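Throughout our pipeline, every protein is held as a single compact record rather than as scattered files. Nothing more is needed to write down the fold, since each code stands for a local backbone conformation. For reference, a complete record is included directly beneath this paragraph.
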Amino acid sequence: MLLDSIYSILPDLNKAFFETLYMVAISLGVSLIVGLPLGILLFVTDKGLLFENALIKQTAGILVNLIRSVPFIILLVALLPLTQLITGTTIGPTAASVSLSVAAIPFFARLVETSLREIDKGVIEAAVAVGATPWMIIREVLLPEAKPGIVQAITVTAISLLGYSAMAGIVGGGGIGDFAIRFGYYRYDNTIMITTVILLIVIVQLMQVIGDGVARAVNKR
């Protein structure tokens, strides 16, 4: 009976699974493209660093903290007009990716900044001493040295996005969260709820294992 119940939901679960991957992939990609430069900007404009600029540092920091301080479910609703403008709809995985991306960018940027702060200042000073330009230092020193931390930041961001994508199901974002709410919660079907929870646990574990493996592979220290 239990196996029959699980088998009957496999087509819908399969669709929800790929919708979740789609949302996470888009928002993670956007967070990498925007969040990585933003994280570098937060670091290099700090006091005593390559492009010290208190105004830019404070402005970027306030913007990042402002977005991070809003709970995702509220941000999701608040960005519905922007989502409608960009995607032409407020439901579905593509629409949910807008809010996911906005939430992921400052989150990832702070993780990148933290990774850069772990670099020994002596390495940066040595690069400056031999006449390296600021852009060379960023490209040849900061990013290679921070690579393991950045890979871990990507892993943490991807796992967080998986959780956020489940919340996106509340407003019709699709994915595993939407599947669990419609087929599990509303129908009081514990089998579906347990199945989705197990699936999410498996996905998170796989993400973490892969992320840890890649971080070890790129760590040349």
Q: What stands out?
A: The longest helix spans residues 2-44. The chain has nine helices and no strands. Residues 21-173 form a domain with the MetI-like fold fold (CATH 1.10.3720.10).
